[in-house]
Amino acid sequence: MWMRRDYWESLCHRWAIGPCQERSKAAKRNREAHLEKNVHTSWSASYATHGQKLRHKLERAPTFRKLFDQTHKRKGIDDYVSESARTIAETYDKMMADHYVEGTPQPDLDPEA
Questions:
Q1: In the chain, how many domains are there?
Q2: Rounded alpha-carbon distances, angstroms, from residue 52 to 20, 87, 107
Q3: Which residue of 8, 35, 91, 92 is 20 to 30 Å from 66, comparing CA positions?
Q4: Which domain of life is it from (predicted)?
Q5: 76, 112, 77: which is closest to 95 by C-alpha?
Q6: What are residue 15's phi and psi, to 5 degrees?
Q7: What is the pLDDT of residue 9?
């Protein structure tokens, strides 16, 4: 048992009332209203799990862009799951090109980009 029973019961009570329920209902409405934002290819696997699998496959740490494509493109079609995902990828690529001169090493992830 990783948590004391009284702590768990306190959390369950807190989640079952007031602001937590309101946020939950609002999030559900948003997911239903914006279906294109909720289409990912990751299913139940976490982003970290995808990163580990890709690291094993590539035999090195994947770049942000590789991992993003892995989790935001439809399998076998090589097309993004949404226009939002396409825009993020294109914007990141443009910002990386603007920040780094061609031929110079780029980091796997530039948080500024």
A1: 2
A2: 33, 25, 18
A3: 35
A4: Eukaryota
A5: 112
A6: -70, -25
A7: 92
